[in-house]
Every structure is written in structure tokens, then in C-alpha cells.
Amino acid sequence: MGQVKKVPMRKCIGCQEMKNKKEMMRVLKTPEGEIVIDLTGRKNGRGAYLCFSKECLEKSMKNKGLERSLKTTIPASVYENLKEEIDQIESK
User: Fold this and answer.
1) What is the mean predicted confidence (pLDDT) over 62-80?
2) What's this model's pTM, rounded to 2 decimal places?
3) CA separation, residue 39 to residues 25, 47, 80, 84 (Å)
4) Which of 2, 31, 40, 78 lies 20 to 30 Å from 85, alpha-carbon distance?
């Protein structure tokens, strides 16, 4: 009998749903305190996961889920970058 691989699941900070890690985008706070989008999912730092939808991003902005997860204040420019990233993905 072969081993069954376990699928890594993560919780979206917007909609609070558990989904496959590959179906989500990771927002990362690096050890230097910089906030970036981690497309590889392998960079060092504290991460939070978001679905690829504007609704989840807006919910996380409203309930400050991203700020709570990363334990820091999030500048407006980071939210703008996230919106642009989601727009690019949705347009494909």
C-alpha cells in the first residue's frame, strides 16, 4: 500500500475558510519588518493566507485580520499591492 500524501490546509483571514495552501496567496512579514507577497510560499517570516478574491481582501481589511495575523500595522500601499495582484490573477 502506498502512502497517502497529506494536503497542507490553511485558513483564509478574509472568509475564514480552510483551503488548500496552493489555492491561496501568502502575505509575509519578513524578519526585517517588511510586508511582501510570497508567491513561492517558502520565504522566512510570519505568514498569513488570503484567497485570490477581492471579497476576502476587503473582509480582511474591514476586520483587520491581516494586521492581527502579522502582529503589525499594515500600510495602505500593501493593500494596494494586494489589490493589483488579485486583479492580475482574476484577469487571466
Assistant:
1) 92
2) 0.86
3) 7, 11, 17, 14
4) 31
